[in-house]
Amino acid sequence: MCGGGVAGMSDRKQNGADQKIETRMKSSASKPAKPISPERPASPPVAGAAPLPDGPADGGTSAPSQRGSFEAAMKLFHARKLREAREWFVAALEGPERDVAQRSQLHIAMCDRRLEQAPVNLRSAEDYYNYGVALINTHKLGEARVQLEKALEISPGAEHIHYALALAQALGGDPINAYANLKRAIELEPRNRLIARQDADFAPLANQPPFDSLLFPERNAWPEKNPWPDGHAWPERNPWPGKKAW
């Protein structure tokens, strides 16, 4: 009886343990498995864009696109690619970081100044002439004279270069050299006399000697006049040949 009872209790314990294991297996099998999300592929890099920096380590908010644009602009700026750098600085103006925007604005101004002073690649006489005329139009007369003189070294017989150089010299307060170059321009192309008469830039000198004789030869009754009076009297003719002048 006792042996049979112990054996029965042992069988019941074993059967109970088996039922618990089976229940747990059914319970775990009834739960759906969580789907494994595939890793998102990295976005392909944009051509010409600078890599964006990581956010701050303290967990604060930032605008990486604004700062990334500024960093890309600085690389181009140091590489002297000023036009490309300026575009990136303009992009860095927009964003919440005021310091980045202010520094971008400062560098935009620096790019503009350096682009205005960028060296010009001049080779031919016409290149120097066109550049000299552009400098006259911006009232940079000293530099204009230098460029036009270089043009004359290449092409000394170019009447339009002589005319432009005379104009730069006249505006710059050098009437003696202006007269010489204008005279040469008229000798090479007589039409320049009429052009100079109608040129407002020559107007202050047109009626002063010796420009009046050069531009209006029909007014000159005495060809032997001194073209550069220095205080001496003009040479006089005796109006009555054979008689003493008064």
General description of the model:
With 246 residues, the protein is mainly alpha-helical. Among the domains are: 64-116; 125-219, Serine Threonine Protein Phosphatase 5, Tetratricopeptide repeat (Alpha Horseshoe). The chain is 59% helix and 0% strand. The protein has 11 helices and no strands. The chain has helices at 2-30, 64-78, 82-91, 98-116, 125-137, 141-154, 159-171, 175-188, 191-198, 203-206, 211-215. The longest helix is centred in the N-terminal third of the chain and has 29 residues, at 2-30. The chain is elongated. Residues 1-10, 25-30, 35-63 and 231-240 have low confidence and may be disordered.
Taken in chain order, the helices and strands follow as HHHHHHHHHHH
CATH class of the domain at 125-219: Mainly Alpha
What is the global morphology?
elongated
CATH superfamily of the domain at 125-219: Tetratricopeptide repeat domain
Number of E-state strands: 0
Can you tag this structure with a few keywords?
246 residues, mainly alpha, Serine Threonine Protein Phosphatase 5, Tetratricopeptide repeat, disordered N terminus
Short description:
This protein is mainly alpha-helical. It is built from eleven helices and no strands.
